[in-house]
Amino acid sequence: MTDVAATSTGQAAPPPVGAARRPPGYTLTGAVTWGGLWVFVGGLLLAVASVLLASLTTQLADGWLPRGYTTRWYTQSWTTFGLGRLLVTTVEVGVAVVAVTLAVALPTAYVLARLTFPGRRLLLLLFLVPQVVPVMTYAVPLATLVYRLRLNDTLAGIVLVNLVPAIPFAVLVLLPFVEQVDPRIEQAARVCGATNRRVFVHILGPLLVPGLLAAGVLTLVRVVGQFELTFLVSGPDSQTLVVALYGAAVQAGELASQEINAMATVYMATTLTLLLVALRVVDPTAVAARDGRSSR
Amino acid sequence: MTGRGCGGALRIDALRREFGSFTALEGLELDVPAGEFVALLGPSGCGKSTALNLLAGLLDPTTGTISLDGRRIDRLPPEQRGIAMVFQNYALFPHLTVADNIAFGLRMRGCPKPERAERVRRALDLVRLRAQADRYPRQLSGGQQQRVAIARAVVVEPRLVLMDEPLSNLDASLRLDLRTEIRALHQQLSLTTIYVTHDQTEALSLADRLVVLRDGAVQQVGTPAEVYERPANAFVAGFVGYRNSLPGTLTGGVFDAGDLVLRVGGYGTDRPAPGPAVAMIRPEDLLLVREPAAGSGNEVPLDVRVCEYQGRGFAIEGSGPGGQLLHCRSDRSFRPGERAVAVVAPDRVRLFARPQTETPTPDRALPVDGQPS
Amino acid sequence: MSASGPSGDHLLRWRDRARRRGVTPTVWLVVPGALFMVVFFVYPVCYGVGLSFQGTQGWSSAYRDFFADRLVNNHGSRRSILITLELALAASVVNVVLAVPIAYRMRGRVRAKRALIAVVLVPMTLGTVFVASAMKEFLGPSGWLNRALLGIGAIEQPLPLVGNVTGVLLSLVFTGLPFAFLLMVGYTSGIDPGLDKAAAVCGARPAQRFWLVTFPLLLPGMTITFCLSFVLAFGVFPSATLVGNDAGPTRVLSKVAYTEYSYGHYPTASAAAVVMAVVQLAVLGLVLSARGLLHRGPTTGGKG
């Protein structure tokens, strides 16, 4: 057995270095990390707050806060920019793009996830490349094409150009979701006598609902925020909210800044509503992290 | 790798760890002389992994002390404890080759390069992986990966090696091979080792000494033979293979379980005081026959329900006179529904005072060949 | 078989062969998506490349105009390449360098992690146009930031944060960091925490554990994050226009292409767009080929 003397000297030895033990979060790097994070969050909140405040100001102020508050800029900007019209267009474009995208992307993602066939890698590349090519590279010729089809300044044109980045994006979001569904479940259904259509409707459909929701919501967020493509094909009769916001912000000198900020606030409210909906449906890290998915 | 005697002497004193109001480990006392192989055995959630993590420094104890060779280590961070650990999921560094994985601990200890190479080479030989030195962990099989993990642990000549269910991710035959290998390695290097497992055969075959844990409390400490032959209580008995347990009352030399009465003998000193008790019998000691020979022991009539062929004999499950489920053995086959007689010698019936709480369900506590998950 | 005749036989054999190579009827489900991408992505890109070679004076005139700075609102289109590259590289380096430590500290259980992630998502949802216009308000000479710095006496003149590279960079970081952060959270949580413990037991101090174990395992994820941040930062122009000064110091390539396009100079617009694509793909190619030298495997230390 252990010799007792050694043990007792051990206990009499210098007190444990417990105090110096692993100080979590109080290291220099920790301070830098959290400091950076709070600068980011603080800057963001202050920037948003300054837009909000500026949209409610009666008069441009010299001090921190405006001299008086009013909501008249909202009504004014509603008529100046036709905000109602813009909102309707934005929603129409969003819904149409999401519907078409999901209808096209789901079967594509299914085939790419499940089957191996000659040309599969090439197809995968076809859906990956639009993610790494600058938007302008295809936006310029695509817009020319849309003009030639006489679809410019129409809803159809905007929907069409927005589909180009949306479909491959949705395919890539859906792929891991399809891969997660064990193919043996499908095989089991087939063994039980289900036809292809029934497998899709009764087995895959319900299992893929989370994936479809994720893809749909993320696509919607992207379409609402999509600027470059929509900008190139939209005209005065067909603008989405972002494009109008950009237009107003560019000619800032000619418009009351409160009016522009009122519009920005409306835009912000729209997107944040979308974000809240999205967060209820999608775990953001799960989607963004699909490459880093751990196997455990 | 210098041979005998590089292990240190471990002393654990009143080690206790709480998670909130839950006590994961209470008052663990253990004295491990240098070079001993101790297995912590118990079902999942018994506190054995907590104990190991406390030893490794991955958890802080609530109270209690740990000393290695007389030096307090319980407040040191893991990297200063001079220990090594083998993890259940191997935890090999996927971006390093086998040789670099093994060299990692030596690098951290500032071992000069030529010596490092030599020691890594010897460690590779020890686990017979010389040919795989430049492979990456993902290119190895599970058994090879775990051998790398073992080599990574022993190469630094730690004063204490901790093993956290190292065999439980391997399939059955591989597990057996590696078990023998671990035993051989320990005999060769005599490293002080604490080995955590829920598999009693693993613990019995590997360890010099066993510590059986349940709900954070030590149930029994002893050599494998002591624990196997003289379990301290009904829980330990159930865990080391006493699969049949009958509640009843002990009076004199007779155990009354209601519908059946057993004569008991032997183990005189261990026998509990008369009163409520539990009789426990190993299936191997309960022999099923059609016609009992006279005077062979206690005879229990049995209705056969299931008969399994097990190569060297048959394992039979049946119900006794009071409907008790009994497991027994026979060298002959029985048909379900058949009536037979189970015979057990009086000195093969182990008696324990009736425990306050339930004995563990044998199916979970006794992994015969398969693995409870 | 014999009844189907020679042509039917041939068809059957062909179908059989196709089936053996994996072409089952289900494969045709991919056709609508693939067709759409070919018609509305591949074709326009090819068309654009073709268009860029149809300049007014010979096949290469659009490119010659581009590189000789002979475009509308001439501010030096060659310089635009450098400006865009600098902005995008700087923004993605900042994004990755900030995202990695934040995400690394988030890998365990951290209080209010979900709320924090939600806050971080806000600028992503708001998009470049809104963030740029909000930054203009916030960072401007009479914005809150300058007011505060003046107020505490840290500066005497308002800092020129708008109308130059600084403003654009800040705006790009605000839109790009959330994305980089989200990706890195995924990568850091994909690393088996057991490896950190194993390294600790092997005697590695916290800093050694990070640099010798976690960091090498994060590198592949960091390169991907860098690439995607770069793609995001390279193509946008609202920030360069609204917060920067697109007539000079922050005239990015996409703005050049857009200006040419809006004047109806399609060949030069296409040429600018092609130059953009080439530069971007070159950077991605460089980064990814460097990544090929690094570890590319699972980030868990055992069987999964």
TrEMBL record, chain A:
Q: Where is the protein found, in the record's own terms?
A: Cell membrane
Which InterPro entries has this protein been placed in?
Answer: BP-dep_ABC_trans_perm, MetI-like, MetI-like_sf
Q: Is Lipid metabolism given among the entry's keywords?
A: no
Q: How does it sit in the membrane?
A: Multi-pass membrane protein
Classification via Gene3D superfamilies: MetI-like
Which SUPFAM superfamilies does the annotation name?
MetI-like
Q: Mind listing the UniProt keywords for this protein, alphabetically?
A: Cell membrane, Membrane, Transmembrane, Transmembrane helix, Transport
Residue ranges of the ABC transmembrane type-1 domain? Answer: 87-278
Q: Does the keyword Transport apply?
A: yes
Instruction: Give the residue range of the signal peptide.
Output: none
**Listed Pfam families:** BPD_transp_1
Q: Which residues cross the membrane?
A: 31-56, 93-113, 122-143, 155-178, 199-221, 264-282
Entry's family note: Belongs to the binding-protein-dependent transport system permease family.
Q: Which PANTHER family match?
A: INNER MEMBRANE ABC TRANSPORTER PERMEASE PROTEIN YCJP, MALTOSE TRANSPORT SYSTEM PERMEASE-RELATED
Question: What is the protein named?
Answer: ABC transporter permease subunit
Lineage per the UniProt record: Bacteria, Bacillati, Actinomycetota, Actinomycetes, Micromonosporales
From TrEMBL, chain C:
Q: How the protein sits in the membrane? A: Multi-pass membrane protein
Q: Which residues form the ABC transmembrane type-1 domain?
A: 81-287
Q: Does the keyword Transmembrane apply?
A: yes
Pfam family example for this protein? BPD_transp_1
Q: Which Gene3D superfamilies match?
A: MetI-like
Record's keyword terms, sorted: Cell membrane, Membrane, Transmembrane, Transmembrane helix, Transport
**Stored InterPro entries:** MetI-like, MetI-like_sf
Q: Where in the cell is it found?
A: Cell membrane
Chain segments annotated as transmembrane: 22-43, 81-104, 116-135, 168-189, 210-237, 269-288
Q: Which family does it belong to?
A: Belongs to the binding-protein-dependent transport system permease family. CysTW subfamily.
Q: By what name is this protein known?
A: ABC transporter permease subunit
Q: State the species of origin.
A: Micromonospora antibiotica
